[in-house]
Amino acid sequence: MHPSAQSPEAGPAGLVDHHCHGVVRRDLDRTGFELLLTEAGPLGPASGSVFDSQIGFAVRRWCAPLLDLEPHAAPDDYLARRAELGHAAVTARFLRAAGLSALCVDTGFEPEPLLSPRRLGEEAGAAAYEIVRLEHVAEQTAPGATAAGFADAVRARLAEHARTAVGFKSIAAYRHGLALAPERPSAAQVSAAAGRWLARESGRGDVDGRVPRLSDETLHRFLVWCAVDLALPVQFHVGYGDADVNLDRCDPLLLTPLLRAIEPTGVPVLLLHNYPFHRHAGFLAQVFSNVFLDVGLATHNLGRASRTLVAEALELAPFGKFLYSSDAFGLPELYYLGAALFRRALAAFLDAGVEDDAWSAADAARVARLIASQNAHRVYRLEPQRLAAR
Amino acid sequence: MHPSAQSPEAGPAGLVDHHCHGVVRRDLDRTGFELLLTEAGPLGPASGSVFDSQIGFAVRRWCAPLLDLEPHAAPDDYLARRAELGHAAVTARFLRAAGLSALCVDTGFEPEPLLSPRRLGEEAGAAAYEIVRLEHVAEQTAPGATAAGFADAVRARLAEHARTAVGFKSIAAYRHGLALAPERPSAAQVSAAAGRWLARESGRGDVDGRVPRLSDETLHRFLVWCAVDLALPVQFHVGYGDADVNLDRCDPLLLTPLLRAIEPTGVPVLLLHNYPFHRHAGFLAQVFSNVFLDVGLATHNLGRASRTLVAEALELAPFGKFLYSSDAFGLPELYYLGAALFRRALAAFLDAGVEDDAWSAADAARVARLIASQNAHRVYRLEPQRLAAR
Amino acid sequence: MHPSAQSPEAGPAGLVDHHCHGVVRRDLDRTGFELLLTEAGPLGPASGSVFDSQIGFAVRRWCAPLLDLEPHAAPDDYLARRAELGHAAVTARFLRAAGLSALCVDTGFEPEPLLSPRRLGEEAGAAAYEIVRLEHVAEQTAPGATAAGFADAVRARLAEHARTAVGFKSIAAYRHGLALAPERPSAAQVSAAAGRWLARESGRGDVDGRVPRLSDETLHRFLVWCAVDLALPVQFHVGYGDADVNLDRCDPLLLTPLLRAIEPTGVPVLLLHNYPFHRHAGFLAQVFSNVFLDVGLATHNLGRASRTLVAEALELAPFGKFLYSSDAFGLPELYYLGAALFRRALAAFLDAGVEDDAWSAADAARVARLIASQNAHRVYRLEPQRLAAR
């Protein structure tokens, strides 16, 4: 590696990445790389280069040295060197350099074959755990299900997953938005909603091979309550995503009534990403005892500006409620870049307070450990018997 | 006091705290202290310590020296010393050290016996005035009132208060939200709304001793217009509050039509707290000649990060439209901490501009005086005959 | 000029101001000047001075030297010197000093006689182009139009404008808000909406000489699709404006479905102003290949704080998607002040990254050129044959 590569020793070591996905198992041309680099869809003639952005500059600064290049290497040089090494070697370098102690992998989005959680963990030298996507389980249950039998079938599958997974995840934000009613839906309501959904989706899977797509408010809510009943932490996609998301429906404040209803159960709720609503998420993390947050996905997309992001998220959020995630998907660079930028942003936040005597160096070090890994361990109860099997 | 305690001389002296509450008159154990420290409700097993947060670190840094401890004293040491001194001595120290010239006290929320405005003023060495909570007056009027007589009875009580109070306050944000129609409701509309409310609430007060709870849009609006007719400044709770608040309904932009309707009367409207919508409030303060704002409550909760908060609020808000408040409730620390952090944040904002020659030192000093006290004196016309009687 | 006047050489020269208006052609007293300085309406007794604000301090710092005064000159001295020079000389000084290479002038708002695009260009030493306001064209078409003929009449006028203008602009935000449905309205829908509007507006123009005011969702949407069909860039007013705007309806996220529908056409969409939703606009610019943004109007209103604004807008927005505009109207100071503050903010953003080695000096210089002018040239295809004729 180039001598300017950041060593994982800088900042809190052994980050727990509590929400990420898998790595693609193929070499990528420039278009393929750019499409996985940001949340943009296909590039148009007016788009300019994705490399000309905070994340593009961050890749050139922080990732290039891991491929033996000078910092700020030109995009073409970067991609050429990447192709030369091949995807397997590139993956190995970035995952190892991320300096992770554990990963929690959402296995519910796999548009192409990805590295499995266990293999990700091996490459990263970290313990790997699985997060189960609620809507994915429901969609897998749909074929052949009846309206009346749907709820029990889903519950049984989720209970099975709960034996090994460390958490569930809702993507209601992407489908209906986060304006979910707080009430646990009745059996009759779930059966009626399932009936409508199954009738609409029947045959579609047969025609184009795609799984039926769940986007019903009652069913999203039913799934969340199933997860709460199984007493595993529940992650919510919040805020920032790709062009499919209607971001105005993804403000975490829309979850307030549901969070209020879940709080008495004590089941942890984790608000993921949150940008540009990260201050809203910080408020919720302060006032609800079971609410946690991160700024994953936004951290690497904001590049150098991730310092402001972390500082703003920590305005109201108690330090015991803030976690690290990359939300990396596809590119191995993102596991490393997320971790490197997060370490820098957190260190900048903590050091600035020590610098002007707002808190002590000892407190800063303790908070770094909480946020880097201890909060995640407390929330997810990461134990050897829950390590991902595949 | 410890030598590192901040003296009130640092920054603009004689702050007017234009919105605060009373201090609890009892000693507090750790749970009692933590519950009053932030807007969080009861702590759960996953909560971690409230002390591990911006406000917790700020208490240890800035309040500990006032209790003769080293800065950054451990929470247990802080609470032990606090208990040793007793609540009366602690209250005396913090209120005096806040360096206030006047306080405007909202007397409409008193879940337990609190220090009265007059006593607060004595402890602080400051003039004390009263702010009357509109909904509290309406709720006091309800028992025995008729639908037809409600409006006149409320108006009479408010007119009585207007002889001594310096302002009114609406908590519509906490109940209905800030989406209030702009029109002055008709007599028939008020009487109908009062009838519905009184019918729903009748007996409740008898059963559990609680006052009936007003949350009707027409009645909130009626109260605001009563206050406007009495030509006293009207404060609105906006944004940040506790877990009871649905923050998405508390964006000050929702008040736009009502503010537009009130503007021709010239009656000052004061948007309180505002976080995380403080930029929205700054916009309203720029475009409406009678709108003012503060960042109370958020200032002490954000601790060191309150510098960013003040700077953002002052992006658009004219310097003649920004005021100081603590929104302190319960803990005497909060009167001091709010003032100390506000002084620091305002000084940082003004000094940075002088530093890079964006404005002159003389202008900075003049703006500091406007914001620290002159704006409040202009808005509230604070006069000796309005000093709080009790 | 005073030696402390900023020379246009500082920072990227030859800015393209891709959205501005005309300059008033008269001398101004203090009230007249203050009313044009910010987005505030008439000042009330409680308002304080508009000069006591970020923009007021910025005028005194940056504009005073252009009138041969010391930086931070007192407002009265500033206005006296301005009157002494006369509006024509003042206009000449500020427009020339702005250091522009091109201006795109929205000619659809002219409440009093303004300097024409061609004359603005002559004063600025810059190429001048015209932006045509969609609603203005529709309102000009209304008198005498029939419901059935309205669509074709508007289309014909817009096609005529498209021969010379470089872009269109929608002010739906000011009228209906940005919650526009994505679908292209049918001929029947447009004719029905036009019929309702024309019936409501008929006679009004006769009575008070005002043009009929369009504020119908279907018609705003129809106009946008007409512009898209003509394949010229479409500007949208977004966010920050005067007291007439309901800012909560001007969040650019409300445009998401419409942006998604326009994207396949490849027609550039430019989100103007955006404050305080500039992060939302940055997100849209990242995920939609044809979406661009600026922070005009806010830049000069925020004064020194415009540094934060530019930095936040560039968190997610690709550097190829960010443009400069002043949105200056009325006062010649605003063309200069917007440019001077933007140069400083962009330089601060880029220099800070070079300083901590987040990107190279060469990349910073390249990005400065993109944002200062190259992005605008690419989007608008500014060509000699499209220079403003009047």
Write the layout of secondary structure elements.
Three copies of one chain form a homotrimer.
Chain A: E1 15-20, H1 30-37, H2 54-63, H3 75-85, H4 87-97, E2 100-106, H5 117-124, E3 127-133, H6 134-141, H7 147-162, E4 167-170, H8 172-175, H9 187-201, H10 204-208, H11 217-229, E5 234-238, H12 256-262, E6 269-273, H13 278-287, E7 291-293, H14 298-302, H15 306-313, H16 332-355, H17 361-380
Parallel strand pairs in A: 1-2, 2-3, 3-4, 4-5, 5-6, 6-7
Helix pairs in contact in A: 2-16, 4-16, 6-7, 7-9, 7-11, 15-16, 16-17
Q: What does this 3D model show about the protein?
A:
The structure is a homotrimer of 390-residue chains. Chain A has 390 residues and is an alpha/beta fold. Chain A has one domain: TIM Barrel (Alpha-Beta Barrel), CATH 3.20.20.140. Chain A is built from 17 helices and seven strands. In chain A, strands 1-2-3-4-5-6-7 form a seven-stranded parallel β-sheet, sandwiched between helices. In chain A, α12 (256-262) links the parallel β5 and β6. In chain A, α7 crosses α9, α7 runs parallel beside α11 (217-229) and α16 packs antiparallel against α17. The longest helix of chain A has 24 residues, at 332-355. Chain A is globular and about 60 Å long. Chains in contact: A-B, A-C, B-C. Chain A binds chain B through residues 251, 253-254, 256-257, 260, 263, 266, 268, 279-280, 283, 286-290, 292, 311-312, 314-321, 353, 356-360, 363, 367, 370, 375, 378-379, and chain B through 38-50, 52-54, 56-58, 60-61, 71-72, 240, 242-243, 246-248, 275-276, 301-305, 308-309. Chains A, B, C: This is Amidohydrolase.
